[in-house]
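Summary for the steering committee. The consortium agreed at its last meeting that each partner would contribute one worked example illustrating the joint modelling workflow. Our contribution is presented below. We chose a case with several input lines so that the handling of multiple components could be demonstrated. No manual editing was applied between input and output; the record is shown as generated.
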Amino acid sequence: MTTLFASLRIALRALMVNKMRSALTMLGIIIGVGAVIAMIAVGSGAKRRIAEQIASMGSNLLVVLSGSSTSGGLRGGAGTVPTLTADDAKAILTEIPAVKHVAPNLSGIAQVVFGNQNWSTIVNGTMPEILEIRDWPLSSGRAFTQQDVDGATKVCLLGRTVVENLFGGMDPIGQVVRIKKVPFTVIGALAPKGQSTWGQDQDDVIFVPLATAQKKLFGMHFPGMVRVITVQAKAPELIKEAEEEITELLRQRHRIQANQENDFTVRNLTEIMSSAEQSAKVMSLLLGAIASISLIVGGIGIMNIMLVSVTERTREIGIRIAVGAKSRDILLQFLIESLVLSLIGGSLGIGIGVAGTIILSTFTQWPTLFSIEAILLAFLFAGSVGVFFGFYPARKASLLNPIEALRYE
Amino acid sequence: MEPFIRVKDLVKVYQLGEVEIPALRGVSLSIERGEFVAIMGASGSGKSTFMNILGFLDRPTSGQYLLEGINGENLSRDELAEIRNQKIGFVFQGFNLLARTSALENVELPLIYTRASTSKRGEMAKEALVEVGLEGREHHHPSQLSGGEQQRVAIARALVNQPSILLADEPTGNLDSKTSAEIMGIFQRLNQDLRITILMVTHEPDIASFAKRKILFRDGKVVDDRNSELQP
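What follows is the complete predicted structure of the assembly.
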């Protein structure tokens, strides 16, 4: 242990002889490690953000859309003829064992007014199950019930963004708002959810009972029709099965012939979102790999400077060999020097990487995530670079001929 | 009884590409423990080559060299390093101290490779410095020492591991006559009081006369080998 300490001291002293040179050599490692830390933090942040968004959407979700995939979009265009009915939804729930909940949905964009405030938002006519399917609690009030749906009562649940824009800090429960000029009583406020995976503000929404939406807001042209049915499967393993059986069932119900296309689309949301997660993972790895290249360049810098150092100290090496240093002693001496260079550079690089990432995320609002493992990994990587690139010069030094070395000028 | 140093038919030939350069053409001699020998000759006479082989820094092309019965012939590079560490003390014309390092640490250098403990090292180095009359200057760097003082540090370093022989290559070459005499005084004292065997290369007859025996090299061979009765 004492020899390790002594060796470190000797190495530090040798590096201090030319502080400027040592500092510049370290710069490569500092930048390399800093870049790796920053890139991994950005990548991890993106991954975590996506995972959070996936979780906030609810789990094991399928979406059945009105219209075939070529004409329907994720929300259905205004001109699309809805081909799904609330009865379709009921059938899906009762006849397919893999399905846990269904929520047929008819929605559109509408103007909502309170007092002298107005706000344009998405109004979702749906079933009370939607709150469970989407894993969406209320922050106050109560949800509407099956009776509200049956009776087409004019009640609504407001999302956080709508509450903020219409009511400011006031409690909205019990107040009456006008949606498309129809009065609705606010019976509940939704807890905030944040942004969805594709950048939409999930809190900018109003939920009303499906029948009310169909009769009073959007469904007057196509009575009884819905555009979207949100389905929650019982377990992740059952999603595929549910998807196939829903397709089968609806083809039967809509009397679609074997050679005809579906007049609906089934989308596996979980699949879409986990592929987004995959992309984030790959991006994160890619960023890290690119940043690692700068670390390699830093290592080359170390090798370069150590070669110069060995040449400059040829005489010294000769003296050491003459008084009894073995090859291994000389090798270790110079290897420790490059290791110290790379580890000090690594530590500084971690500091700069962390600081830089914090500054970056403050200005760009990108999500970032630090992990101890990544930092330790970068540190170890820096150390290995030091040992790997320092080896050749150290070996050269250890093989010097003492007689020639002592004659060196 | 086996002599302290025994050299038999020592030959050294350097290979420079196609050209062969014979540096030693067959040297045989023996040296007893406690001798003080001056090795003289013109440059190219083979005296430096001879010293390098005696110091286990180089291997002969043929012939035998035994120090206290130890034959370096079949020893590895690392094993030779160990012998140098234990048995040989070097003193060079250019001092060859480590710059920006204190006198004490310079003297300690061989002890680092002996793996002596830190405290023991300091003690032994201090003693060696006292021996050469540099007590109190332990923490000075070479740049703060005169030529004579630097050479004394070098001598202390050569002595610190209690070697069998001291090999000095033109030890007074970079010193003025007064300092040279001081250094030679130290050598004589080490030889007489501590019975240290000293081999010294020099081309100056004045310096050589401090030694008790003079060996003259010419063209790779010993052409003269006599004891001197005169001592200044």
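The CA atoms of residues 34 and 193 of chain B lie 10 Å apart. The helical segments of chain B are 47-54, 77-87, 103-114, 118-131, 147-159, 177-193, 205-208.
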